[in-house]
Amino acid sequence: MLQASVEDLTDILAFNSSLYDAETGNSLKASIREDLARVEGADRLADYLQDRVDRSVIFHLFRRRFLLDNNIMFRGGLHEDVDYMFHALMRARSIKSLDRQIYRKLDTQGSIVNSLSTRHVDGFFDALDAMHALVADTPMWPDLKNPFLTGIINVTASRLLRLLPGKVVKLEDAGKILSTLHGRVVRSMKLAELAYPLPVQPSGFRTKYRITFDAFMNGMEKGDTTEDMLKAFAEIAPKLWSCYDLHHSILLGPGEVRTCCKRFTYEGELKGDVVLFGGNGKDFEFTYSDIKQAKDALFLEINRDNSDECRGCPFLKFEDWGRPLNQGVKYLSFEHHSLCNMRCTYCSETYFGGKKPAYDAGAFIDTLKDAKALENMEYIVWGGGEPTVEPRFDELLSKLAEGISNVKQRVITNATMYSEPLADLLRKDQAHIVTSIDAGNSNNFNEIRKYKHFARVFENLRRYAACSSRNVVIKYILLPENSSSDELRQYADLIVENGLTDCNFQISCDFKTDRVTDDQLVSIVELHHLLRVRGARLIFLDDLVWQRILTVTPDTLELLKSKLESSVLETAFEPVHPEGVVVWGIGGQAQIIRRKSQFFKTSKIAYFIDPRPEMIGQRLGGIEVRAPHSALSDDLPIMIGAVQSAPEIYDQIEALGISPQRILQKVIL
After folding, report:
1. Beta strand pairing status for 12-21 and 95-107?
2. Which residues contact 385 (CB under 8 A, 6 or more apart)?
3. What is this structure's pTM?
4. Per-residue pLDDT averaged across 291-298, rounded?
5. Ordered structural domains, the chain, with CATH
6. What is the pLDDT of residues 102-128, one digit of tens each?
7. d(CA 367, CA 328)
8. What is the pLDDT of residues 502-539, one digit of tens each?
9. What is the rounded CA–CA span in Å between residue 437 and residue 206?
10. Any residues with CB less than 8 A from the CB of 182 and at least 6 apart, and which?
């Protein structure tokens, strides 16, 4: 096998390795390397500097003549293989890789790689300086300058985190190591003509190593004690960048599996709906284990700042996440086909392109149940494509309901077809539906949704509402063609005529737009008001709206008020609540409203409410998170700070015996 892998011109052969405990002989890692594709790549030097290519000589074979001809030799000191490998990668004409565990590495306590001292620091920085000397006067240096800086950051931060208890054997005092490390950082940056402080990406993203490096450099500049700096490193150590969807969600798309359903704009490009695998137009099968493996890989790339698809995402948070899906699946979305009987103007072929399922969703549900991955489930969503037109919908809906009756399945349906199993789950409080109307009359409905049976949609909504009106959400996506005052009134009147005011109402906007304009805000306020004065149970603006609303200022509100009719203006906006407001919900919606609205510039938050035991007693921005029953001890007004779970929160408030009159019903901006 080795002979077949080494061609006449191959200078370096990279291979894989396994890791074993030196004392017990137990396997710790079956496969160490994830970089074999990179080691052969044209960008291998930049990748090497940024710690994306393994630095261990022991995982490589070298042609002897190649080493001699290029005078590639080990220097003295520790970590001498770091610059040796760089020199070899720089000079090699041909590099091949073999994904086979040739080497068996033993993890030995107290070894060079498992200990830390000033000698280790000097060894790494001697290697960095030697690598700089190899390329500083070459045409390669301009392209390698930023990767070299990343190398300094990564080496520094990785040594800092090793100072924490339980990481490695510390052979010297932490203060002495910190002082040596700082001196070597300053020296290496000066050699490379780099200066601190360093610039930050427009998105504000910094890798964990960069955050650690900045804490160290700033701490040294301020004269922080060793104890203070170690405490700061300990707070950073368990954290990594991720998002709720990457860690807790599985989203089945037409012919592909996604890790998120969020959309955002970064540097003028619409991004999101990140695909894990699939998308090649062929039928395929997969398991829950396959998804976990793909998520682990994406998680790693995000934290290396090497994920183009997630770069600039506003939903990424630097927290202690653990591994993706370490608690099973909490959010499961079925959009596994693009079969639909509508062609909405704001939609795309992704959702109405007529693609049949490319994989067996039922078989995948079985793998979830076998892995006991549904035990912490919080949300199940059916979208697409129109869920009810897929022949197996009723079967799959019922299959999922078995054994997880405590979780409501959320079905985003256009209500053109009536599903009895879905109606039964509505009655049992095991499902709710979301239906977009987006028009106040049949003609405009036909134009926007490309469907002629406007009356049939309302008929099915009446039937579903008869099963459980509180489990029905009626959505209105505001577009230029459906936002006139007359049309909004017609829509609100239709809600009354069809006896649907006990349902819940979601106001949304076109996800393809970058921002909500002032005119759209006027329509949002007007529609909210029209539904409220007609007795709608619950009205809320969704996350698409709030993501696209710029920070609301007093000038914004004055401009809106100048454009609104006096009858709307008098009662539309939620007044100031100087005594305080209770915010029920601590997720992204609550935080974005708190950050962007003018309302919370004048109305303080008394406390947050969250039912999860692990969150009770925590503080968000200095404000305490309390249990739901805490709201019984006062009469403060309550704002529901959620989207998908807003109707359930409303139910929870009623179930506690709290008057719905306490729920803020007017527009909050």
Report:
1. parallel
2. 254, 335, 336, 337, 338, 339, 340, 351, 352, 355
3. 0.78
4. 96
5. 1-108 (no CATH), 137-237 (no CATH), 241-407 (no CATH), 450-571 (no CATH), 573-668 (3.40.50.720)
6. 988 887 877 777 889 999 999 999 999
7. 12
8. 999 999 999 888 899 999 999 999 999 999 999 999 99
9. 42
10. 216, 217, 220
